[in-house]
Amino acid sequence: MRRGGLFGVPRVRPWSWQAFLLGFAIVAVSATLQGICVTLGAELYFAAFLPSIFVVGIIAGAPAAAFAALLTIPLVWWAFMPPFFEFSPLTSAYADSINLFFLLAVLLIGLADLCRETIAIVSRGGLKPTGESAATNSQETPLSRERALPSRNSSATIRPVALRR
Known about the structure:
Number of domains: 1
Largest sheet: 2 strands, antiparallel
Strand order of the largest sheet: 1-2
Distance between the termini: 75 Å
Number of strands: 2
Shape: flat
Strand content: under 5%
């Protein structure tokens, strides 16, 4: 694990066993927190898991966050959707909850990956200015622009070409 350089966020290499272990551990902690919420009467099945997927995405990368999201779906279906601790056919409401979670998880994983890349860029010193505007083409010169566009006084006209047989 190494420091990302911004706010002291530790970073784990993506696709490493440590990244997937971190994803598993954070899902387990989220399941405990979700169990407490269900005990108190909350019926938001995926509420504790969405922030954890974002955290895993920033610390361990997109593959570990995708693993955590895919691990979350059967866990919530088994442990938190009635009847508890057994797989039962999904009702349309439960299927909608799973689909919404999957959509939000994909969006959060993408956002976490962008944040992770931004942290990496900032820790390297940021983007270096090149001294040129992004709106101008660095290969284009005023002379080449004059050659490419005929002026109004030039004799360049478009004439139809007769086909010869």
